[in-house]
Amino acid sequence: MAAVTEPLLRTERMALRQVTRSDVDRLVLLNNDDGVMRYLDWRPPTREQVVAEVEILLKAYEVYPRHGQLIAELADSTFVGWFSLAVGADGPAAPELGYRLRTAHWGAGLATEGSQAMINYAFAELEAERVVAETMFVNAGSRRVMEKCGMRHIETFHVEFDNPLPGTELGEVRYQITREEWLVARTSR
Questions:
Q1: How far apart are CA 162 and CA 35, in angstroms?
Q2: Is the model's pTM score more than 0.85?
Q3: Which CATH number goes with the domain that contains 22?
Q4: What per-residue confidence (pLDDT) applies to 4?
């Protein structure tokens, strides 16, 4: 069971809090959930790799304490997965949205709910200028979530992989929403 930490964000159905070392087993469970890694890798990361990833996340919180990966839980503490606003090469003004949910929670609107909350948080609290997200072209579910959140497709690109996943030949896609687009969408509701 994860150590109790205060949620950084709340949505209608979820609390989103920072990752702790006690979340390792939950993250391993998520990565081993059948179908979760379909568009990410041939096999899930090992427990040791997840431990190393958690240490990287904890160090990143020291530099950017309000960015990064957040554990998503329902009101009854059921583990849903995670959402992220990662600081990449373009810095904190253009965080990258990411999410990974257990398959039991697919199709319930939680990916859109959490992603929308992260986008709102990026613009309202983190003063982001844009939020970006990437996935494989063939990942229709993730693309649909991005579009429901007001993100638009800005490019398709190709990456060379030593052992490409099925669908890699169609490329990767990048989506984004700018602060201006977010503001217009908020005022038109």
A1: 21
A2: yes
A3: 3.40.630.30
A4: 47
